[in-house]
């Protein structure tokens, strides 16, 4: 899979660890939010797709946590970020914007890091986040058309 020991060599590496911790918190928060959104979804198709997106977020959380532990020697302590809206439509909009912002954040991390495994994981997560944003936009558009 990957070498379990990456060594912090500079303050730049320390900044990347901080970015990875932020990514972990984002995935942790997204998984919690999407569980709520799935429960509010008006149709089974939407609910199932949101739960699939949630699975991706959990997978990203797990991979990022492994990377964080390898880099820092510590287990992450994830924190919930901004509270998920309690209204379905507002939640979809919130999720869409969050996913779009996350795409660029993950690409930035991938560009800063030289280890191939880490670069690939953040590039892959970025592509997943873009796909999630498209789904949320689709659900938002469908609601406006009805």
TrEMBL record:
One Pfam family in the UniProt entry: Rubrerythrin
InterPro entries tied to this protein: Ferritin-like_SF, Rr_diiron-bd_dom
Domain Rubrerythrin diiron-binding: 92-144
Name this polypeptide is given: Ferritin-like domain-containing protein
Annotated source species: Paenibacillus alginolyticus
């Amino acid at each position: 899979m990957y070498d379990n020991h990456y060594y912090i060599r500079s303050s730049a590496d320390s900044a990347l660890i901080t970015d990875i911790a932020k990514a972990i918190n984002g995935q942790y928060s997204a998984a919690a939010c999407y569980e709520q959104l799935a429960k509010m979804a008006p149709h089974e198709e939407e609910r199932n797709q949101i739960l699939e997106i949630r699975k991706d977020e959990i997978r990203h959380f797990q991979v990022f946590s492994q990377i964080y532990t390898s880099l820092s020697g510590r287990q992450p302590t994830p924190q919930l970020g901004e509270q998920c809206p309690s209204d379905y439509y507002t939640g979809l909009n919130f999720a869409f914007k969050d996913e779009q912002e996350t795409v660029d954040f993950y690409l930035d991390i991938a560009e800063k890091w030289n280890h191939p495994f880490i670069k690939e994981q953040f590039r892959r997560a970025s592509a997943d986040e873009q796909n999630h944003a498209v789904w949320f936009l689709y659900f938002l558009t469908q609601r406006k058309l009805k």
